[in-house]
Amino acid sequence: MFKALQKYGDGIKVMGPLLPAAFPFGMITGVTALDAHLSAAAGIGQSIIVFAGAAQLAMLQLMQGHAWPPVIVLTVFIINVRFAMYSASLAPHFSQAHWSARWAIAYLMTDQSYALSIARFAREPDMTLDRKVAYYLGGASLMWFLWILATVLGFVLGAAVPPSWSLEFAVPLGFIAMLIPALRDRPSLAAAFTGGSIAVIAHGLPFNLGLFLGAVCGIGAGYACERHIEARRAQGGQNV
């Protein structure tokens, strides 16, 4: 029990450095919800129910533009489909956990909680199931609490947040902070470079399709690079 509690604290500790980037992101979501003329219950409630920053912002922006509802739903689905990949990656670590823990893990999943957890599990392959669950939930629950708080503040302050603060600049910084430590081999480098480049080039596509296209191309590049390396190893290649 003590070791599990210690891991819970470790999860909170490692999530801490990412909070300064996530907090402005949450405030932007709250401000955008207010600009979309949502009620307090809907504006703040969508952070509790959806709990997915990029998808929430895309949804709110499309609502402001009076987009066709099926387009809004499809956009949110496309942006959030990455969580299916995260789930598949985490499944071997949590498949034996109690169903209530798995539900909590799924609900609290974010890019940050996934990246920090999968990196720690790789470094500590002997970590027990209880300690894995505690570590994950420690960081993930802290991120959830901060996200809701930031959304509330953004919604309440609304127009009082001056544009000169440039809160949106903190969003990519947070993702960069997670990405850099994960680039440990050629497939991950290929995926990051390809996905990032395509996303930038296709930034002007409607409905945030540039993000989806970048993700698909990045996955394809990483997979192709890994298959190439495996083929060379099978042929007795060296220095791969």
Short structural summary:
Helices cover 77% and strands 0% of the residues. The chain is mainly α and 240 residues long.
3D architecture notes:
The chain folds into two domains: 2-170, no CATH class; 183-240. The chain contains twelve helices and no strands. The mean pLDDT is 81. It has helices at 2-15, 19-35, 40-49, 53-64, 69-80, 82-94, 99-107, 111-123, 129-157, 170-182, 186-201, 209-234. The protein is globular. Helix content is 77%, strand content 0%. The chain is mostly helical and 240 residues long. α1 runs parallel beside α9 (129-157) and α2 (19-35) packs across α3.
Topology overview:
Layout: H1 2-15, H2 19-35, H3 40-49, H4 53-64, H5 69-80, H6 82-94, H7 99-107, H8 111-123, H9 129-157, H10 170-182, H11 186-201, H12 209-234
Helix pairs in contact: 1-9, 2-3, 2-4, 2-9, 2-10, 3-9, 4-5, 6-8, 8-9, 8-10, 11-12
Keywords:
0% strand, mainly alpha, 2 domains, single chain, 240 residues
Helix content: over 70%
> How many strands appear in the DSSP assignment?
0
Q: What would you call the structural class?
A: mainly alpha
Report the order of strands and helices: HHHHHHHHHHHH
**Uncertain runs:** none
Q: What is the 3D shape?
A: globular
Give the termini distance in whole angstroms: 43 Å
- The count of helical stretches stands at 12
Average residue pLDDT: 81
**Tally of individual domains:** 2
Strand content: under 5%
Largest sheet: none
What's the alpha carbon Rg, rounded to whole Å?
19 Å
